Amino acid sequence: MSDAVRIKDKARSLGFQLAGIAPAGPSPETLFYPEWLARGYAGEMGYLERQASARLNPAEVLPGVRSAIVCAVNYNTGRPLTTFDRARAWVSRYAWGEDYHETLAAKLCELADWIRANCGGETRTYVDTGPLIERVYAKYAGVGWFGKNTCIINPKIGSWIFLGCVLTNLELDFDTPLPDRCGTCTRCIDACPTHAIVEPYVLDSRKCISYLTIELRGEVPAGLREGIGHHLFGCDICQDVCPWNRKAPGTEAEGFQSRPGLFWPELERLLDMQEEEWRVLIRGTAMKRAKVKGLLRNLMIVAGNSGLPRLVPRIERFRLHADPVVRSTAEWATGILASLNGRENDNPDRG
Ligand code: SF4
Ligand code: SF4
Which residue has the higher pLDDT, 314 or 28? Predict the structure, then answer.
């Protein structure tokens, strides 16, 4: 049995549903990466620019690198797709359970240890440290095709998957990329509420709700707040509408099941929470990346978008918050809701 087959078998035994191997060299997608950065699509994610050289030239982090072993794990908990209720906020599916960075990193380290012990060579592990490179390796490793929504889509399990990658200097047998099966479909592009998929396969992060609610620090530009709608953290819409996710199997993995309070939480409950409760709620989840003050800023935007003037008294205390961004966003939300003159906005388009 070849090392490639043994490594993929080992990956599956560790709980990865998918595993494939790609050459760790340049590709048309990685060659586009500098242009993507130059267009400004990375927004304020300066680390992507700083790490660009190493990410495009993996030999900088692992001299003699030959192969990228890409592993994927299904995090689809089987809960409903994004559902709108003006009195609730939406948290992206991937953040309902425990932080996948930690879960995957532990599994990948175990795989890397096994590779070194049983096949030799050197290894480096990566877990979703950026918007492109792991997905490109995943494409060439046959894990899935690179969808127009920029997600990796596997024909059997869809795109609710986390990706991790082990680089090695071993020369392994490579897998064959899967054909692109997006065809003439444009559902993701049409459904994106902020028009962030600026052309098929190209995302302008600056417009994407995931970026705005997670990566962007400071003020969300006023013109982009309405588009955030009810999204407290992340956005799933371009995956919800993807036909390849219609029959995506669920996972029983305990760590990915939603924690109480993270699945479709009520705005009034969130607005009443003290900061220590927030810290407890997000501890050990991917939501901690946004930090409590980032989530409070997002909560003010969601409340402002709710069309529910009854929330104004609950927003009041945030107008005195220690963080100036939370304060100013609370002012904004109060202004929006007060302008409704006590009438609920009957038809807010906040999906
Ligand atoms: S995550 Fe949401 S905002 Fe971002 S591209 Fe997809 S649909 Fe658009
Ligand atoms: S919604 Fe359609 S175009 Fe978009 S990723 Fe899915 S199949 Fe491709």
Answer: 314
